[in-house]
Amino acid sequence: MVSYAPLWATMKEKNISTYALIKNYGIQSKTIYNLKHDKNISTATLENLCDILECTPNDVLTFKK
């Protein structure tokens, strides 16, 4: 199972809100919903988030059993 807990910490560290992701960076609100509920996202979305936050995938997600 995927957890996006690291994403929220990274966003807080970089002072980027979910509102900013939607309004300033074009992330769809459905994607934010999926992230908040630990649902699947595409690798393209993961890459986009990493570009926006200037981070690696380890700063966005983690795998848990």
Secondary structure layout plus pairing:
Elements (H helix, E strand, L loop, with lengths): L1 E2 L1 H10 L3 H8 L3 H8 L6 H11 L8 E2 L2
Antiparallel strand pairs: 1-2
Strand content: 5-15%
Spatial strand sequence of the major β-sheet: 1-2
Note poorly predicted spans. none
Intertermini distance:
6 Å
Q: Based on the structure given, which CATH architecture is correct?
A: Orthogonal Bundle
- Main beta sheet: 2 strands, antiparallel
Total number of strands: 2
Shape: globular
CATH topology: 434 Repressor (Amino-terminal Domain)
Mean pLDDT: 96
- What is the percent of helical residues? 55-70%
CATH class division: Mainly Alpha
Number of helices: 4
Number of domains: 1
Q: What's the order of the H and E elements?
A: EHHHHE
Rounded Rg: 11 Å
Structural class: mainly alpha
Task: Describe this protein's structure.
With 65 residues, the chain is mostly helical. It has a single domain, classed as Orthogonal Bundle (434 Repressor (Amino-terminal Domain)). Strands 1-2 form a two-stranded antiparallel sheet. The relative contact order is 0.27.
State the gist of this model.
This protein has helices at residues 5-14, 18-25, 29-36, 43-53; strands at 2-3, 62-63. With 65 residues, the chain is mainly α.
